[in-house]
Amino acid sequence: MNLLGADPVDDLVCSARGCRAEASWGxxxxxxxxHTPERRKVWLACDEHRGSLSQFLExxxxxxxxxxxxxxxxxxx
Length: 77
Ligand SMILES: [Zn+2]
Description:
- The protein is an alpha+beta fold.
- Helix content is 13%, strand content 21%.
- The protein is built from one helix and three strands.
């Protein structure tokens, strides 16, 4: 477990549907119906999709934070 409590990430590719851009941001989120409170799921986002993806999570009150991808822990490390 890393500093953020975030799940490890694989390829740093944007999570938006159909987007293959390199991700610059990690959106940390938690669905209290599915996850324990300290769990942080991670969506990756390029600059273009950071806004729409974070808004999607924010309206559901799932969004916990947005961090640069270099603060995330890779699955291989
Ligand atoms: Zn994207």
